[in-house]
Write a structure and sequence with these properties.
Elements: E1 4-9, H1 16-27, E2 31-33, H2 34-44, H3 47-57, H4 64-75, E3 83-87, H5 93-105, E4 112-117, H6 120-128, E5 130-133, E6 139-141, E7 160-161, H7 168-191, E8 195-199, H8 204-223
Parallel strand pairs: 1-3, 1-4, 2-3, 4-8
Antiparallel strand pairs: 5-6, 5-7
Bound molecules: zinc ion.
Length: 224
């Protein structure tokens, strides 16, 4: 069986999360976002988990090599033998090299780095128009998906607010960080022939079918 060892890249608001969810449904792949796997490592109380907990409790940032070790533990656990979906890792070239080595120890390699891309102005438009209900977390958009009554959640009648993360100045800051961190990674994967780019400005359905077609092509190339 063909493995689907996948890394997801892309700016906030380009629809990476939506595509991740669809890929998980399609292929039943384990999904590893950095936050989730660190939390799960802590909960498992493994040796690594204890180290992570100590650092998190002290308020420090978890260093690259420890995140790498936690990822490696999961790749080794048997649950990811047919593939995986990594989101938020790697974030730096150092981490990408770590992943490459971890896979190579297992006699495996990355299938593709899927970049769900969108221009900055589109990201700002999407995120800064987002409104979230304070009670149930239901999400609306002032232009694309407005509630029936302005400022009020259709589902539970509670108040809609703009999350701090979605304020224009925060979005701009998040984009700066994204470009600084991720552009070298895009270049790195591109040089290795692993980058596949998708237009996040298309509808989620279009992006999804494009991703599926690309993965099918890669599986075919792999089999021949
Ligand atoms: Zn609501």
């Amino acid at each position: 069986m063909t493995q689907r060892n996948l890394v997801l890249l892309g700016p906030p608001g380009a629809g990476k999360g939506t595509q991740a969810q669809r890929l998980r449904d399609d292929f039943d792949l384990p999904y590893y976002s950095t936050g989730d796997i660190l939390r799960e490592a802590i909960a498992s109380q493994s040796e690594l988990g204890k180290q992570v907990k100590e650092i998190v409790d002290s308020g420090e940032l978890v260093p690259d090599d420890l995140i790498g070790a936690v990822v490696e533990e999961r790749l080794n656990s048997g649950e990811a033998d047919d593939g995986f979906l990594l989101d938020g890792f790697p974030r730096t070239i150092g981490q990408a090299e770590m992943l490459e080595q971890a896979l190579s120890k297992l006699g495996r390699e990355l299938t593709a780095a899927l970049l769900i891309d969108a221009p900055d102005e589109e990201v700002v438009r999407r995120l800064s128009g987002r409104r979230t209900c304070v009670k149930g977390g239901h999400v609306y958009h002032v232009d694309f998906d407005p509630p029936k009554r302005e400022g009020v959640c259709d589902q539970d009648g509670s108040r809609l607010v703009q999350r701090d993360d979605d304020k224009p100045e925060t979005v701009t800051k998040r984009l700066e960080v994204y470009h600084e961190q991720t552009e070298p990674l895009i270049q790195w994967y591109s040089e290795r022939g692993l980058l596949r780019r998708f237009e996040g400005t298309r509808t989620p359905e279009e992006v999804h079918s494009h991703v599926r077609a690309t993965l099918a092509t890669l599986a075919f190339e792999d089999a021949t």
